[in-house]
Specification:
The protein is mostly helical and 58 residues long. The protein is built from 4 helices and no strands.
């Protein structure tokens, strides 16, 4: 999903490196994702998500 939304940097961010880190930094992760998702509509993101085998939910 990170590649599909244009945020490959999240994959290497130590705050989100593993499930425990993601849980400990859930607020920061949610802020990053919210900021990113606000830049495009769901319809604009759908083709990229499908190309990455990450089908969007509707």
């Amino acid at each position: 999903m990170c590649a599909a939304i244009g945020r490959p940097d999240l994959l290497t961010d130590p705050r989100f490196a593993d499930p425990d880190s993601r849980m400990a930094n859930d607020r920061e992760l949610q802020e990053e994702l919210t900021k990113t998702f606000k830049t495009k509509t769901a319809l604009e993101r759908e083709p990229s998500l499908r190309r990455q085998a990450c089908p969007p939910a509707r």
